C-alpha cells in the first residue's frame, strides 16, 4: 500500500483533518491528527499497520510493547500480524511501568508501538523502563511519525506527517483569511 493510500484511510476515518486548527497550546495548524479515529475500524487498522509490519517483520522481534493509552491497540494489531507476544506499559505515580505481571525476558528484542510519535518523550521513557528490565529496544513502530529530530532509535511509520504549526499572532492561514479557525472536537482533544 502506498503512502497516498495511508493518507486516504486516515482522512476517510477522520483521523487526519485538514484546514485551520486551534491547538491546545494556543498555536494554529494546517492539519490535525487523532489516530484513535482510524483505530475505530479494525479493517483500516489492519491495512495501515500492515505497511509497518512490512518494515519490521525481519527484525526478529520477541515482544511488542505499547505504552497506554495510545500504543495499546497499535501494539495488539502489530503483535497479531507478526505473530508475537504483545503487552503494554502504563503510567503509575508519574512513571512509565510494566505492570499486571507482564514480563520482559533478559535480552528480549522489543519494538515499542505508538499511535503517533511527536517529541518522542514518552517513547524514550518507555525504552528506558524496558531496558532497565533487561530488554533490548530496537526501535519504535507507529502510524504517524511527526518528529523533526532524532529520538535515538529507528522509527518505523506508516506515514511521515508534516504538520505546519504557527504562533497565533503570525499565522499565514489567519492572514489569508479563507479558512475558518476551528477547535477540533474538544472531548478527544489532546
Ligand atoms: Zn491561524
Automatic annotation (TrEMBL):
<dbReference type="GO" id="GO:0019856">
    <property type="term" value="P:pyrimidine nucleobase biosynthetic process"/>
</dbReference>
<keyword id="KW-0808">Transferase</keyword>
<feature type="domain" description="Phosphoribosyltransferase">
    <location>
        <begin position="52"/>
        <end position="147"/>
    </location>
</feature>
<dbReference type="GO" id="GO:0000287">
    <property type="term" value="F:magnesium ion binding"/>
</dbReference>
<keyword id="KW-0328">Glycosyltransferase</keyword>
<feature type="binding site" description="in other chain">
    <location>
        <position position="92"/>
    </location>
    <ligand>
        <name>5-phospho-alpha-D-ribose 1-diphosphate</name>
    </ligand>
</feature>
<dbReference type="InterPro" id="IPR029057">
    <property type="entry name" value="PRTase-like"/>
</dbReference>
<protein>
    <recommendedName>
        <fullName>Orotate phosphoribosyltransferase</fullName>
        <ecNumber>2.4.2.10</ecNumber>
    </recommendedName>
</protein>
<feature type="binding site">
    <location>
        <position position="146"/>
    </location>
    <ligand>
        <name>orotate</name>
    </ligand>
</feature>
<keyword id="KW-0665">Pyrimidine biosynthesis</keyword>
<keyword id="KW-0460">Magnesium</keyword>
<feature type="binding site">
    <location>
        <position position="118"/>
    </location>
    <ligand>
        <name>orotate</name>
    </ligand>
</feature>
<feature type="binding site">
    <location>
        <position position="91"/>
    </location>
    <ligand>
        <name>5-phospho-alpha-D-ribose 1-diphosphate</name>
    </ligand>
</feature>
<feature type="binding site" description="in other chain">
    <location>
        <begin position="114"/>
        <end position="122"/>
    </location>
    <ligand>
        <name>5-phospho-alpha-D-ribose 1-diphosphate</name>
    </ligand>
</feature>
<comment type="function">
    <text>Catalyzes the transfer of a ribosyl phosphate group from 5-phosphoribose 1-diphosphate to orotate, leading to the formation of orotidine monophosphate (OMP).</text>
</comment>
<dbReference type="Pfam" id="PF00156">
    <property type="entry name" value="Pribosyltran"/>
</dbReference>
<dbReference type="GO" id="GO:0044205">
    <property type="term" value="P:'de novo' UMP biosynthetic process"/>
</dbReference>
<dbReference type="InterPro" id="IPR006273">
    <property type="entry name" value="Orotate_PRibTrfase_bac"/>
</dbReference>
<dbReference type="InterPro" id="IPR000836">
    <property type="entry name" value="PRTase_dom"/>
</dbReference>
<comment type="subunit">
    <text>Homodimer.</text>
</comment>
<comment type="pathway">
    <text>Pyrimidine metabolism; UMP biosynthesis via de novo pathway; UMP from orotate: step 1/2.</text>
</comment>
<comment type="similarity">
    <text>Belongs to the purine/pyrimidine phosphoribosyltransferase family. PyrE subfamily.</text>
</comment>
<dbReference type="InterPro" id="IPR023031">
    <property type="entry name" value="OPRT"/>
</dbReference>
<dbReference type="GO" id="GO:0004588">
    <property type="term" value="F:orotate phosphoribosyltransferase activity"/>
</dbReference>
Amino acid at each position: 500500500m502506498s503512502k497516498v493510500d495511508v493518507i486516504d484511510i486516515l482522512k476517510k476515518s477522520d483521523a487526519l483533518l485538514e484546514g485551520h486548527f486551534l491547538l491546545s497550546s494556543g498555536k494554529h495548524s494546517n492539519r490535525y491528527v487523532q489516530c484513535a479515529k482510524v483505530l475505530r475500524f479494525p479493517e483500516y487498522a489492519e491495512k495501515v499497520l500492515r505497511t509497518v509490519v512490512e518494515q519490521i517483520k525481519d527484525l526478529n522481534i520477541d515482544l511488542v510493547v505499547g505504552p497506554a493509552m495510545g500504543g495499546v491497540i497499535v501494539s495488539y494489531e502489530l503483535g497479531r500480524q507478526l505473530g508475537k507476544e504483545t503487552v503494554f506499559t502504563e503510567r503509575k505515580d508519574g512513571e512509565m511501568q510494566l505492570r499486571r505481571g507482564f514480563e520482559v525476558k533478559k535480552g528480549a528484542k522489543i519494538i515499542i508501538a505508538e499511535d503517533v510519535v511527536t517529541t518522542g518523550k514518552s517513547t524514550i521513557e518507555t525504552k528506558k523502563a524496558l531496558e532497565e528490565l533487561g530488554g533490548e529496544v530496537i526501535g519504535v513502530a507507529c502510524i504517524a511519525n511527526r518528529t523533526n529530530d532524532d529520538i535515538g532509535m529507528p522509527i518505523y511509520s506508516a506515514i511521515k506527517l508534516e504538520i505546519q504549526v504557527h504562533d497565533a499572532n503570525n499565522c499565514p492561514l489567519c492572514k489569508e483569511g479563507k479558512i475558518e479557525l476551528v477547535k477540533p472536537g474538544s472531548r478527544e482533544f489532546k
